[in-house]
Amino acid sequence: MKKDVLVQVKGTQVNDLGEADTIELITVGTFFIRPGSYYIVYNESAISGMEGTTTALKIEPTRVTLNRMGQAELKQTFEKGVWNEGCYVTPYGSMMVGVIPSKVEVDLTDVGGSINLEYELQVGREKISDNMLSITVKED
Known about the structure:
Elements: E1 2-14, E2 20-34, E3 37-43, E4 53-59, E5 63-70, E6 74-79, E7 84-90, E8 93-109, E9 112-123, E10 126-139
Antiparallel strand pairs: 1-2, 1-10, 2-3, 3-4, 4-5, 5-6, 7-8, 8-9, 9-10
């Protein structure tokens, strides 16, 4: 089963001074199901700063894998308490980006739902920020 959906992505980044920066993207995407996993695929926009990039999410009950392809490339896995590092490739250069998720909450059914992630973001093993990412999917 494959269908068009409305994807709402809200990301908040809090730096070590407690300053928060939030971006929100609402776009059309594709939602499909495979045994044991849901998938969401959507195109990034200028709002996210990643125009020309396609994001694919593989959602399992306790793990979310993000795969960005195009202008920016990154594969990152979010699993509560599990350190994951990936190479983030941009037109301006590459860097190693790590995440340590403290919350991986998946509430999806065949008609949509939500994903909530909370994680520490690191670059070069140095903490950059605490992040919250909320993704909501509903039928278009």
